[in-house]
Amino acid sequence: MRKKWIPMYAAILLMLAGSNATAEARTSPSAAPPQQTRLEAEVQHWTEALSEQPRFSIWKDAERTIAPIGPGQHGWLVTFLHERRPVGYMIVNATQDGGFALGEYGVGTHPAFDPNAIYESLVRQGFFPTYKAAVQAQPKLERKYIHPLLAVWQWTEADGTVRYFDAFTAEALPVDSSSWQKQSADPQFSAASGQQREQAKLASFRLNAAFDPYARLPWLTSAPLGSSDVGRLTRLLDQKKEIRFAAELYHQTVLFVWSAIGYHNWDNGQLYVAIDNDFGTRYIPLELLRGSGRFYR
Q: How many Cα atoms are found within 13 Å in the side-chain-facing hemisphere of 277?
């Protein structure tokens, strides 16, 4: 049942934003603020560039909420809502030179850090008897975002027990605080490197049909595509070949396997790979993906 979150979604989002930070920006296409912050201006630019694409066109009429991801993480979650339903998201990172980078973005009903998904997960796994009880309990939830592959809800229970849930599916991860800290400290997971900077425009794009990534298991039987051959990856996607991305994290205790179904190529050379996750499509910088996993044909 998905309908129950419709009247509660904005309130829950605000509650979570309040638990992670002291301020939040909310904008809508019909009532833009008289003075935009630099962050809001950059988000507006990326929104306009992306909304020219058919799957992103609904963003033109969407309300968006900008909230810090979490204390000390130097990032922001931009959530797009249309008629109070989530329709997409952006992750924006601060850069060392004081600018902003577009870490990832996507469309679909399950955006990053969807509060409905995490509360449903807590109920499904027996931590709370009902959705309403979970909301009323106001569990201590924090959004943790280090990298597109290291994005989690951190839940600290009353007795101090800490649990981790995937930021998109809200599925529980076999991860404790020690393994989370060790993995997130790995220098290869640098979320602010090699990402889309301000004022870039889309130069080309491709979006293929989604497919079941587990229909074949090439990561077990075949060699991966060369990590430096960007041209081959885009050519294969242009030819509508089925490409899979696989990554093993947390000392090989968690395996991520996703369908790569397309790309966005921006005019400054940055390539974002379109990843299908059943609930929508995520666009993640190729540089970040190939540094933490492998593509397979």
A: 26
- Per residue in 202-215, pLDDT (tens digit) is 899 999 999 999 99
What pTM did the predictor assign?
Answer: 0.87
| pLDDT tens track for 70-102 | 766 789 999 999 998 999 999 998 888 888 889
Please answer whether residues 293 and 244 qualify as being in contact, where contact means their C-beta atoms are separated by less than 8 angstroms: no
Q: Average the pLDDT over 9-37 and give the result.
A: 50
- Residue appearing with tokens 């934003």: 17
Residue 110's nearest CA partner among 35, 51, 53, 165 is 165
Q: For 73-124, where are the E strands, in sequence order?
A: 75-82, 85-94, 100-108
Q: CA 210, CA 181: separation in Å to the nearest integer?
A: 33
For residue 172, the Cα-to-chain-centroid distance in whole angstroms is 17
Q: Nearest 5°: CA angle at 259, between 56 and 265?
A: 50
Task: Tell me how far apart the 2 most distant CA atoms of the chain are, in Å.
Answer: 57
Give the integer Cα–Cα distance in Å for 259 and 245.
6
pLDDT tens-digit profile of 143-174? 999 899 999 999 999 999 999 999 999 999 99
User: Which pLDDT score, from 0 to 100, does residue 161 have?
Assistant: 95
Q: Are strands 150-156 and 140-147 parallel, antiparallel or unpaired?
A: antiparallel
Instruction: Report CA 9 to chain centroid distance, whole Å.
Output: 18
Residues 208, 193, 190, 103: what is their CA dihedral angle, to the nearest 10 degrees? -50
